[in-house]
């Protein structure tokens, strides 16, 4: 379904890119005996959801307008800098909770990507579908993570697309995934056993599959710190969809 097409709810949908799936090595595999995860084929939106798209969603489903969702679904920062009537705004929407992101994707007939799906696509550089062993590419991603988040966000698709034809996996905003808290064992994983505590300190590198990918460490730590109602000015999302089979 291409950009500009709409569904019954009136949402303008982002183009979906077909990802044929593949193998992926999570930083911390759920089962150490099976360090490689098989990711099934799926579809992923070509860029993060924009302010304009989300504005349409809010008009269609006003229960997600600023100040309306209850605190259990969105904290007080939800759409804190929101200005209405910006349908042409192509900056990524941020200050959106996980619950709100899921609601948007459901309204579009889609879903949030899983962590494995997102990370599979995020390994790609502009020239390689798997650049996880490319030190120059890893350094470029890490440089973005290290930069202060003070400048206004730019538009989607302003940079380079990756080898899958997907834009803005890095360098624009952090993104929600469906199972963002799958690393947590207790209310705070630091309360778990020694293996869980190791994820959040220097010795975490010992059990990680690739100690060179420090940016991946940062994503794991970031996701593990989130709660579903939380919002920040640097956290957005994009939707995914299952690949229909004949």
Task: Characterise this structure.
The protein is of the alpha+beta class and 246 residues long. The protein has one domain: paralog of FGE (formylglycine-generating enzyme), CATH 3.90.1580.10. 24% of the residues lie in helices and 9% in strands. It is built from seven helices and seven strands, in the order ββββααααβαααββ. The strands form three sheets. Strands 1-4-7 form a three-stranded antiparallel sheet, with no helix packed on it. It is globular, with a radius of gyration of 18 Å. It starts with 15 loop residues before the first strand and ends with a strand. The N terminus is likely disordered.
Secondary-structure blueprint:
Blueprint: E1 16-19, E2 22-24, E3 37-39, E4 42-45, H1 51-60, H2 98-107, H3 115-122, H4 135-146, E5 174-175, H5 194-197, H6 204-207, H7 214-225, E6 235-236, E7 240-242
Parallel strand pairs: 5-6
Antiparallel strand pairs: 1-4, 2-3, 4-7
Structural class, from secondary structure content?
alpha+beta
Number of strands: 7
- Count of separate structural domains: 1
pLDDT below 50 for ≥5 consecutive residues: which ranges?
A: 1-6, 184-211
Q: Mind describing the biggest β-sheet?
A: 3 strands, antiparallel
Q: Rounded to an integer, what's the Rg over CA atoms?
A: 18 Å
Number of helices: 7
Spell out the CATH superfamily: paralog of FGE (formylglycine-generating enzyme)
CATH fold naming: paralog of FGE (formylglycine-generating enzyme)
Q: How much helical structure, as a percent, in the residues?
A: 10-25%
Query: Cα distance, first to last residue?
Result: 17 Å
Q: Summarize the helix and strand pattern as letters.
A: EEEEHHHHEHHHEE
Order of strands in the sheet with the most strands? 1-4-7
CATH class: Alpha Beta
| Content of β-strand | 5-15%
Label the CATH architecture: Alpha-Beta Complex
């Amino acid at each position: 379904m291409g950009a500009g097409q709409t569904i019954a709810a009136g949402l303008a949908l982002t183009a979906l890119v077909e990802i044929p799936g593949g193998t992926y090595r999570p930083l911390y595999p759920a089962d150490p005996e099976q360090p490689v995860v098989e990711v099934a084929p799926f579809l992923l939106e070509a860029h993060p959801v924009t302010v304009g798209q989300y504005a349409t969603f809010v008009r269609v489903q006003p229960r997600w307008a600023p100040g309306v969702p209850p605190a259990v679904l969105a904290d007080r920062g939800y759409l804190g800098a929101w200005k209405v009537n910006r349908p042409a705004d192509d900056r990524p929407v941020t200050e959106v909770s996980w619950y709100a992101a899921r609601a948007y994707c459901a309204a579009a007939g889609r879903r949030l990507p899983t962590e494995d799906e997102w990370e599979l696509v995020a390994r790609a550089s502009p020239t390689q579908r798997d650049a996880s062993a490319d030190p120059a590419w890893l350094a470029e991603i890490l440089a973005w993570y290290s930069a202060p988040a003070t400048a206004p966000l730019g538009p989607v698709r302003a940079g380079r697309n990756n080898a899958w034809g997907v834009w803005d996996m890095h360098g624009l905003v952090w993104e929600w995934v469906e199972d963002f808290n799958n690393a947590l064992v207790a209310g705070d994983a630091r309360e778990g056993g020694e293996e869980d505590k190791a994820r959040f300190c220097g010795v975490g590198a010992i059990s990680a599959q690739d100690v060179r990918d420090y940016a991946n460490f940062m994503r794991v730590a970031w996701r593990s710190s989130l709660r579903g109602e939380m919002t920040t000015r640097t956290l957005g999302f994009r939707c995914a969809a299952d690949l229909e089979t004949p």
